[in-house]
Design goal:
The structure is a single chain. This protein is α/β, with parallel strands linked by helices and 346 residues long. It has nine helices and ten strands. A five-stranded mixed β-sheet has the order 3-2-1-4-5, with helices on both faces.
């Protein structure tokens, strides 16, 4: 009997089907199948997403095992994303994980998708220096569906300190990109064009929200009104100024995010600060983290690009920690679409 702890992670919360193997805390494989079917719709279509997961999940798990060089019989447990996310997509991953684990007679471990994004910082790779945050640390979790500041006191003790009261930051990028006629998903396109533009070319409204919460709907409206007014004067306004528009939009978003994060870090006297989620791939935001580290003495943690988007490695590493506490899941546990304020549980 192998003494290795081999965790299979399965992620299917949105439109990426992913499987990963983590052995004793170290990554052996991380396979992601993306769905291009949604691009022509300008957003993820839940029904199409769940169908694509059904087609992808068996080949993706097979490939993860093959790349890891282990047999399915060597698996110790199966960790899966239980929520939050699109219910149809989650059901595919949940059902597969339960059936696969039952067939192998091994435990299943349910993982919270948001907790997993934070835990991406604890994935270790062989033959590289693995530097991980020390508890307590702050994590700015920014993606298409979430914008939160989380205080992390342990892998299973995370508290949301502040969050968006309307749009998530990734959503705001995508919607502003859409009105400029840019392709979906808009965030990466805005980032690319922003590098060529002047971040001070345009001024957009910044929200004045009490406490540590965020708001991005006012910024989105301000952006929309700027476009509407300028297009009246010049129908080619967007085409002529898209680099400057993207640069100014991105600079405003980053300023909103970092100003609140700095306030929380000061108030809680925490110098270890991490970023996670899809928007953590944004080059401007990554640079802002380095700048703040230099200016305020923060120790910052920025994930590899492959761990910013939805992936199963972050699910598997969370499962690895939960496995050591024998924190298993009942076969009857259903997936869930939404979440409460404490992200360590459901």
């Amino acid at each position: 009997m192998s003494t290795n702890i081999n965790i299979l992670g399965i992620e299917s919360s949105c439109d990426d089907t992913s499987a990963s193997i983590i052995q004793n805390g170290f990554l052996l494989s991380n396979v992601v199948a993306s769905q291009s079917v949604h691009e022509s719709y300008g957003g993820v279509v839940p029904e199409l997403a769940s169908r694509a997961h059904q087609q992808n999940i068996i080949p993706v798990v097979h490939e993860a095992l093959k790349r890891a060089g282990i047999q399915k019989e060597e698996l110790t447990a199966v960790a899966f994303t239980r929520g939050p996310g699109l219910l149809g997509s989650l059901m595919v991953g949940t059902s597969f994980a339960k059936g696969f684990a039952q067939a192998l007679n091994i435990p299943i471990i349910d993982v919270n998708h948001l907790q997993a994004h934070v835990m991406a910082h604890f994935i270790k790779e062989k033959d590289v220096e693995n530097v991980q945050p020390e508890f307590p640390f702050l994590c700015l979790l920014v993606s298409g569906g979430n914008s939160q500041i989380i205080k992390v006191e342990a892998y299973n003790k995370m508290t949301v300190i502040g969050q968006t009261i309307d749009d998530a930051v990734g959503e705001a990028f995508d919607k502003c990109a859409k009105v400029m006629g840019l392709p979906y998903p808009g965030g990466p396109v805005v980032d690319k064009l922003a590098k060529l533009g002047n971040p001070k070319a345009f001024t957009f409204n910044k929200p004045h929200i009490e406490g540590y919460d965020y708001s991005f709907s006012g910024l989105k409206t301000s952006f929309l009104y700027t476009l509407r007014d300028e297009i009246k004067k010049d129908p080619d306004f967007v085409e002529k100024h898209k680099e400057d528009l993207c640069a100014s939009l991105q600079a405003t978003v980053i300023d909103i995010l970092m100003t609140k994060l700095k306030r929380v870090a000061n108030d809680l006297n925490i110098k270890q600060v991490a970023v996670a989620g899809g928007v953590s791939a944004n080059s401007g935001l990554r640079q802002a983290f380095y700048d703040y580290a230099e200016k305020y003495g923060w120790k910052v943690f920025i994930p590899k690009f492959s761990y910013t988007t939805d992936n199963a490695a972050m699910v598997a590493i969370t499962g690895y920690y939960k496995y050591q506490d024998k924190d298993f899941c009942e076969l009857s546990a259903p997936p869930f679409a939404r979440i409460s304020a404490n992200i360590s549980g459901d």
